[in-house]
Amino acid sequence: MRTDGPAGAGQGGAGRSARPPRRRAETRRRLLTAAFASFAERGFYGSTVEDICDRAGFTRGAFYSNFTTKEELFFELYSDRTRRLLDRIEETVGRCSAELCAASPERTGQVEADAFAEAVERLLLVQPDDRQWYLINTEFTLHAVRHPAAASGLADRRREVRARTAQLLTYGLAEMGRDLAIDLDVFVRVLFALHEGALEQSYLEPDIVPVGYLERQLIPVLLAALTTRRT
């Protein structure tokens, strides 16, 4: 049964003033979950507001009281997923930097190369192998390339992700006693391009290029080549 909100909405009681914000958050959460399922199954273009609402158990009114378009819904989904991923990466960077520094007080070239490889390995472990999200994100990226307004919105959100990634990278390198030798934004863009291109090859040729294989081979080399030891 479709509703404009969760069951029990509109009941009286002391919790009435606090209920609308919680109800709105729950409505948005259910719409995001339904949108992910619909986008994964039907694609961004094939999904309709009606299908998303049916999956979430709401009417169109609930959708349009929270989002104006499917694009806005995708942007919320993108921000939610990247925020949660970066939270996991931040936790891993903090723990990993401390452990690697404690385990490797001597900064020989081989020790640093091993530390880079271990750091990359740990970071890859917190990134899920999510083929469905890859398909959703790739399809919307193609949509954005064709539509300037969508491109601007996606670029803004990717810029936010790169900025936080840059902060985490700077912190991790500082903890390891390293400085980046090239422009920080350029390096982060290279990392993103490598990761996205590697995923494409992995999903096309999984037996030859397993997920994470190219990152494990190349990112430690890039870090060693494009950072310098602090003096």
Main traits of this protein?
single chain, 231 residues, mainly alpha, Arc Repressor Mutant, subunit A, Tetracycline Repressor, domain 2, two-stranded antiparallel ribbon, 2 strands, 74% helix, elongated
Which CATH architecture of the largest domain?
Orthogonal Bundle
Q: What kind of oligomer do you see?
A: single chain
Query: Per the principal axes of the C-alpha atoms, what is the gross shape?
Result: elongated
Distance between the termini: 66 Å
Describe the structure.
The structure is a single chain. With 231 residues, the protein is mainly alpha-helical. The protein has two domains: 21-67, Homeodomain-like (Arc Repressor Mutant, subunit A), CATH 1.10.10; 70-229, Tetracycline Repressor, domain 2 (Orthogonal Bundle), CATH 1.10.357. The chain has nine helices and two strands; from the N terminus they run αααααααβααβ. A two-stranded antiparallel ribbon has the order 1-2. The protein is elongated, with a radius of gyration of 21 Å. It starts with 18 loop residues before the first helix and ends with a strand. Mean pLDDT is 87; it is low at 5-19.
